[in-house]
Amino acid sequence: MSAGSTTRSSRVDARFAALKREGRAGLVTFITAGDPDLETSWEIIRGLPDAGADIIEIGMPFSDPMADGPAIQAASQRALNNGMTLAKTLDLVRRFRQQDQETPLILMGYYNPIYSMGPQRFIQQAVAAGVDGLIIVDLPPEEDEELCEPAVDAGLHWIRLATPTTDGERLPRVLENTSGFLYYVSVLGITGTRSALTEQVAEAVQRFRQHTTIPIAVGFGIKTPEQAAAIGKVADAAVVGSAIVGRIADSLDEADKATGETVPAALDLVRALSAGMRGRVPA
Amino acid sequence: MTKTLNTFRSGPDESGHFGNFGGRFVAETLMPLILEVEQAYNEAKVSPDFKRDFDYFARHYVGRPSPLYFAERLTEELGGAKIYFKRDELNHTGAHKINNTLGQILLARRMGKTRIIAETGAGQHGVATATVCARFGLPCVVYMGATDIERQKPNVFRMKLLGAEVVPVTSGTGTLKDAMNDALRDWVANVEDTFYIIGTAAGPHPYPAMVRDFQCVIGEEAREQLQAAEGRLPDTLVAAIGGGSNAIGLFHPFLDEPTVQMIGVEAAGHGVSSGEHAASLSGGRPGVLHGNRTYLLQDDDGQIKDAYSISAGLDYPGIGPEHSWLHETGRVNYVAVTDDEALEAFKLCTRLEGIIPALEPAHALAHVIKIAPDLPKDHLLVMNLCGRGDKDVFAVAERLGVSL
């Protein structure tokens, strides 16, 4: 089976088609739902499209985010400390969809909170809320029966991670059931730590393009507008997460509460990243 | 109609499942490594060279076979079942942990890996890993919760003496589960040269099966030794359970003997109803963590809760997936014992048998104390005395209000 397209009209496919027409790569932004609190993260999320985010990824907080680095771990912990739950994350998506019908929204996280809610119930609610796709870090192709297959059947994109160790033998397995885009993790490791050389990324993207026509987004270690712009030249989208989450963390007071700086700090970085990707890197 | 399984010993299936439990719930970044370990292990376990090396070091370095000892005074005191201890506390480093670290480091060498990482709670698995790393000359990094480092200073020093680097883990809640998260993060970032020695029969396939296989030496020896002493199979086996590696090692060789009853003893801490415990089966529900589906302590939202027990070796919020399966099939009976009950057993064993047990097997013993008096005198009960209590004397003294 090749990567399928979803039966209903896909915001993700439409967005990548529009980006192609504009002749530029997309900016995918990540923040954790409920970080540092529900209302502040809502203010950030609602401001993301205007700030230049082409696709929004929202992290579902989990107590044990084993593929994430310190920045996103801390964000998860802040959100959980303030009472964030999976149900509240879905509420955020619902609120966002009432004001924005165009911007694709992807939920990213770990399986256990979903398993705890019940996969069928989660899929139903995610579709109803207006979620476009899922990235579930700890569900490799070997466990597709759990959530991937029913999610795809319900019209959600299943977006998988590929890594520098994803070789030609493994890649077809990774691409199976993947749609929307492929998320290339450009460095071996956890989120927000090392950065890859653009040439290596370009090489990997070229390798993947021999196996698939779906867009390729590149993430892990992209922190600055310059890096995002460079990745935008070789891939279909750049994903920025830890850097934005880091700005949020830096803006908090000593008790980890939001300040007047929190929302602008996150959105200013997104504006700068977006400008960089549109070829307007500020001096 | 209930369908009876032909065997309880054939698991896991090819994809690492024990019934509904186990599996490979890991990030794609880890999948190539997991598959590589699985392939290497499948080759190693049928290799005569590998078996020869394992047997050699088990005998001459670890000190196996460990004795099967008739606990005569305890048996008299309780007045019922005839109690034997499988004395894995006499192993080098003082616990069953080294059976597994020995097996895994031999596999790591076979795979050409040059750097070892491990997680540890109380430090026993960390010490057992650092020990084999010293023996085979491989650098060793042990991830350990910052709070555990504070509580377990002697073991931290031991690991450092053995040449290991001990990395304090402050992420999450800074406990064993977070140490495991950080070890997995290290592994993802160092795929080329690093082997991750997991300390219990949990984690992604093939770890639960592999750790079990290395620990089965306990049950295989016990079976032979009891045959020699009594001319028959045991009637009941009892072992403590955190992740469950010592228990599965004792139980597995007997699973297909229908006359042998087995009891796994979890840590009830302040009592399962108090919410402060480490009893995943008695007080948790199925979930997915650290690469496998198994019973977990978690809240209504599926967030993992911290476990609590006086025994640092038992306070893990999960349990090996094979135990979850044996629990649901009913083949093994799982119970829970409180801190106080374990302490009483600790004192009784020390005074009657002159053996200071670790707090982990003290939990198993507490259950033995409950059931033995009502069993007939010809009932053969084997308990796994899986660790010695030297490491616990400080914690016990504090609990008893004695300052050292």
The helix content of chain A, as a percent range, equals 40-55%
Largest interface, C-beta closer than 8 angstroms, per-chain residues? A-B, 43 and 36 residues
Largest sheet of chain A: 9 strands, parallel
Radius of gyration over C-alpha positions of chain B, nearest whole angstrom: 20 Å
Q: Any low-confidence stretches of chain A, pLDDT <50, length ≥5?
A: 1-7
Total number of helices of chain B: 16
Number of domains of chain B: 2
Task: Quote the beta fraction of chain B.
Answer: 15-25%
> What is the helix content of chain B?
40-55%
Q: Class by helix and strand content of chain B?
A: alpha/beta
Computed structural class of chain A: alpha/beta
Taken in chain order, the helices and strands of chain B follow as EEHHEHEHEHEHHEHEHHEHEHEEHEHHEH
Morphology of chain B? globular
Mean pLDDT of chain B: 95
Major sheet: arrangement of strands of chain B = 3-4-14-9-10-13
Please state the oligomeric state of the protein chains shown: heterodimer
Q: Number of domains in the coordinates of chain A?
A: 1
Number of helices of chain A: 12
Query: What overall geometry of chain A do the principal axes of the alpha carbons give?
Result: globular
**Rg of chain A, please?**
17 Å
Helix-strand pattern of chain A, N to C? HEHEHHEHHEHEEHEHEHEHH
Entry summary:
The complex is a heterodimer of chains A (283) and B (404). With 283 residues, chain A is α/β, with parallel strands linked by helices.
